[in-house]
């Protein structure tokens, strides 16, 4: 409640303020600040890391975990103009998702292949520390995401039973994840065991009909 009061009930627009919110990490803070509010912030996801590793550093893959050097590089390459920085962020993410693929990169379709250090080095194989696939299926992170997706899909409050239906891996896990989302301030509880996203108001019946 103190955090809500601090920002007047609004979502803060800077990475620093967003990072202070419960459950918000570096990537989410930068993405919201850049794409929702037009702030200059380096948005670094897996795709961006791979593009920068290849184009700038000549490595087949980024390190297993995000490093300070990667964040510094992303910051240094970011255009100074906030609008251009936001466009740059989307462009690099899309290039990593559609062209500079992890297993089968489409180098023939790459718009910067002539500048790519990895291409110029003969596309050497990755020789860094072993990379471990991040667990996702069946995790609390996946469950929390399913609950939030169910709440985003409607403007009306959702009952506990309806939220439980968004996740079939076990009611205990669903209840635990729902409780954690409420504690983090990402879900607002209402009377009658109903829930909604914070700040969302239900539309009057018949609205939009």
Structure description:
The protein is mainly alpha-helical and 209 residues long. The protein has 10 helices and 3 strands. Strands 1-3-2 form a 3-stranded antiparallel sheet. Strand 2 and strand 3 form a beta hairpin. The longest helix has 17 residues. The chain starts with a helix and ends in a 13-residue tail after the last strand.
Reading the helices and strands in chain order gives HHHHHHHHEHHEE
**Low-pLDDT segments:** 203-209
Q: State the strand order across the main sheet.
A: 1-3-2
Q: Considering DSSP H and I runs of 4 or more, what fraction of the residues is helical?
A: 40-55%
Please sum up the structure shown.
This protein has 209 residues and is mainly alpha-helical. The chain contains ten helices and three strands; from the N terminus they run H-H-H-H-H-H-H-H-E-H-H-E-E. Helices cover 44% and strands 4% of the residues.
């Amino acid at each position: 409640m103190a955090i809500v009061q601090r920002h007047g009930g609004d979502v803060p627009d800077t990475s620093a303020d967003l990072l202070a919110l419960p459950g918000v990490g570096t990537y989410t803070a930068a993405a919201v600040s850049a794409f929702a509010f037009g702030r200059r912030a380096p948005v670094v996801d897996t795709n961006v890391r791979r593009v920068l590793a290849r184009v700038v550093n000549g490595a087949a893959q980024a390190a297993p975990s995000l490093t300070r050097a990667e964040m510094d590089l992303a910051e240094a390459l970011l255009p100074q103009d906030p609008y251009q920085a936001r466009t740059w962020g989307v462009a690099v993410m899309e290039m990593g998702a559609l062209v500079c693929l992890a297993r089968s990169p489409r180098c023939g379709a790459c718009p910067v292949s002539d500048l790519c250090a990895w291409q110029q080095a003969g596309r050497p194989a990755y020789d860094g520390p072993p990379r471990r696939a991040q667990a996702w299926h069946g995790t609390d992170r996946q469950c929390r995401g399913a609950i939030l997706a169910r709440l985003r899909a409607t403007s009306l409050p959702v009952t506990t039973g309806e939220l439980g239906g968004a996740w079939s891996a076990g009611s205990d896990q669903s209840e635990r994840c729902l409780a954690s989302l409420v504690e983090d301030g990402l879900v607002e509880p209402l009377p009658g065991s109903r829930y909604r996203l914070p700040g969302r108001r239900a539309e009057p019946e018949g609205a939009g009909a």
